[in-house]
Amino acid sequence: xxxxxxxxxxxxxxxxxxxxxxxxxxxxxxxxxxxxxxxxxxxxxxxxxxxxxxxxxxxxxxxxxx
Length: 66
Description:
By secondary structure, the protein is mainly α. About 70% of the residues lie in helices and about 0% in strands. It starts with 7 loop residues before the first helix and ends with a helix.
């Protein structure tokens, strides 16, 4: 999956996660998906987008995002 195939809101949530967590952003998303706990920095809308991505693309889709 290419970042451009994501919705604008999904892309914004990914971009903000990248900004907050740097090179470890995918690991942070995977941790949040496993635990359901999102650390500081994301608002409820961004968390909802990431949760929706978990339910639709899962970890295999996350790996394809650059």
